[in-house]
Amino acid sequence: MTKSTPTKITLTNPKTISLALQGGGSHAAFTWGVLDRLLDEEKLKIEAMSGTSVGAINSALLACGMATGCRKKAQHLLESFWRKVSVAGSMLVKPTMLDKMMGNNDLAFNPTFAAFDYVTRMFSPYQFNVLNINPIKDVVEEMVDFMTLRHGTAMKLFVNATHVHSGTARVFDNEQLSLDVLMASACMPFLFKTVEVDGEPYWSGGFCGNPSLEPLIAHGKAQDIVIVKTTVLNSDEVPTNVQDIVDRVTEISFNTALKLEQQLLEATTNVHFHTIEASDILSGLGRSSKFNADWNFLEYLRDTGRQAAEDWIKAVESAPVVSAANANTKAVV
After folding, report:
1. Considering only CA atoms, which of 253, 258, 260, 311 is closest in space to residue 281?
2. pTM assigned to the model
3. Residue 26: phi, psi to the nearest 5?
4. What are 194-227's pLDDT values in tens digits?
5. Residue 16 to residue 149: CA distance in whole angstroms
6. First to last CA, the chain
7. Could you please report the per-residue DSSP string of 294-308?
8. What is the pairing mode between strands 44-51 and 156-163?
9. Considering only Cβ atoms within 10 Å of each terminal Cβ, which end of the chain, N or C, has fewer?
10. How many other C-beta atoms are found inside a 10 Å radius of the C-beta of residue 121?
């Protein structure tokens, strides 16, 4: 279902937007679908992107592709990345027949994941992941051209990470981007060792900004910022076991900083904020589906993202023109 409140983007003429992309593990394949559909719109120009975790990786891949001036190249890079993620992830854990029968794309009946889940509750990554194995790191290193991001693209990129000592956000721009920066932004401290950048320790940017919005305003000219949400804020369920409680606390904390920052900017700037999300669908997925890299599941999320972007495009084209500066358009699948 698509919901919209009045603010208009007319796609009959070129329109510049900025994107704010959340993380969310495999759920960020939804963002892949959103980006894939937005890239089909020749009249939409993406000026800047702010991303956290896999949202930052998605933005880096899009920027690498667009540096050649080719939207198809960006779409190809995104698809290639997620195919490689599926191969890497499925080598470690994949849904069993029972999981598939449950229909929520969970990994609850996979014994490997069950063992992994238990270990992460009892031990830190400094104990159970001594070699700091992260299969996604190899894929990112292979797929992302950091030299292009630093010097070969006009698109502004901002990647958010949390400084462990101070508990504050640090936003890295194009000139500072590296493999370590992307891995720092995606570093969940329950799973991976702390990532150091310039000798300083960082965890996932989701703790302080998922993602940060202010850089898009301070360093960009676009009057429309589209937030692509993959982290569920509203939930009808009350978690009762330890891991579900931890997961829900993380969801709340990963949304709080974004919500507060957006409210502040809505009150103090003339920027229009738009939201594309699939809250009903994502909230219905199993907790461990964020680790599910099965290709059919990733395709499902991609297609859901494309439909959500399609709904948003229709919503903004049909919205009446208003003078209120901070009206929002929201597309919900």
Report:
1. 311
2. 0.90
3. -60, -25
4. 999 999 999 999 988 889 999 999 998 899 999 9
5. 20
6. 5
7. -HHHHHHHHHHHHHH
8. parallel
9. N
10. 11
